[in-house]
Amino acid sequence: MILANTDQIQLNARNGDKKILIGKELAKGLGAGGFPEKGKMAAEESSRELKDSLRGADLVFVCAGLGGGTGTGAAPVIAKLAKDMGAIVISTVTMPFKTERKRVESAESGLEELRNSSDTVIVIDNNRLVSMAGNLPIDQAFNVANEVVATMIKGIVETISDASALVHLDFADIKAIMNKGGVSVIGIGETDASDSRVTEVVRRALNNPLLDVSYKGAKGALIHISGGPDLTLAEVNQIGEMATQSLDPDAVVIWGAKVDDSLSGKLRVMTIITGVSSPYLLGPEEINTLSKTTGAINQELGIEILK
């Protein structure tokens, strides 16, 4: 794990295999001050060191919080460096709370840049975090999002490296799904229910709590199924059908399955759906068009559409 920051204090406070203070001359270790342009210039200043650290990587995860200076400005630069070096780039980012209006504007701009420089962008919306973990202490609440990201990365790495799986997924499979995947969403479901466990595990995997998404017309899916010795072929087939029923008819779907003795009586599914749509991720022009369309429907039919 490589950590990059413009803030020396924050960098020192985190654990990682390697730490890079970006923009030493520009930011002097004091941060980007909330200015994305400064974060971008800091990453560009340190591009040689960043490239040296990324060299040889086939798959790169870029994780950042959008809305501030360093994450918003530097993440797209780092993603592009990795992509230009031939890696598949999966960026995972958090979006700020809607009350942080200025940060939201910066985040939306940064997200658009990141979508252009990554193969796939997985978005976590802090506003959804409130409804999911609003009663937890604040540090624990934010750890929920961190845990989702960590579980996703761990799941993808294990999926590629696990040669003991009944149906093995390799790097080429990941590349086929992630290449130009657009906005994507991770789903993880687990159940020990004895009745209707297939329906329940798929519901939990697709009912993503951290981003309001629509799977209709999605372009690709990676599905990894794990279960105990009681896992049946019929269950694997049913999970695949249920998890992909809303996708585009021409969507690329790849799945893998493994038997894990420690999951006796349990069923676990990890899904990565690419090319999803979300009302939170509309750009200013699309939002303007949507508002006009909504107004026209209200006027024509006398129906109020609540968003």
TrEMBL record:
GO molecular-function terms, A-Z: GTP binding; GTPase activity
Cellular component, GO annotation: cell division site; cytoplasm
UniProt cross-references to InterPro entries, sorted A to Z: Cell_div_FtsZ, Cell_div_FtsZ_CS, FtsZ/CetZ, FtsZ_C, Tub_FtsZ_C, Tubulin/FtsZ_2-layer-sand-dom, Tubulin/FtsZ_GTPase_sf, Tubulin_FtsZ_GTPase
The encoding gene: ftsZ
Role, per record: Essential cell division protein that forms a contractile ring structure (Z ring) at the future cell division site. The regulation of the ring assembly controls the timing and the location of cell division. One of the functions of the FtsZ ring is to recruit other cell division proteins to the septum to produce a new cell wall between the dividing cells. Binds GTP and shows GTPase activity.
Assigned protein family: Belongs to the FtsZ family.
Record PANTHER family: CELL DIVISION PROTEIN FTSZ-RELATED, MITOCHONDRIAL DIVISION PROTEIN FSZA
Secreted as UniProt keyword: no
Location in or out of the cell: Cytoplasm
Superkingdom of this protein's organism: Archaea
Protein's UniProt keywords contain Cytoplasm: yes
Residue ranges annotated for the Tubulin/FtsZ GTPase domain, each copy included: 1-164
GO biological process, one term: FtsZ-dependent cytokinesis
Lineage summary: Archaea, Candidatus Parvarchaeota, Candidatus Parvarchaeum
Entry binding sites for GTP: G69, T70, G71, E100, R103, N146
Record-given protein name: Cell division protein FtsZ
Tubulin/FtsZ 2-layer sandwich domain ranges (all copies): 167-285
Keyword terms, alphabetized: Cell cycle, Cell division, Cytoplasm, GTP-binding, Nucleotide-binding, Septation
Subunit (UniProt): Homodimer. Polymerizes to form a dynamic ring structure in a strictly GTP-dependent manner. Interacts directly with several other division proteins.
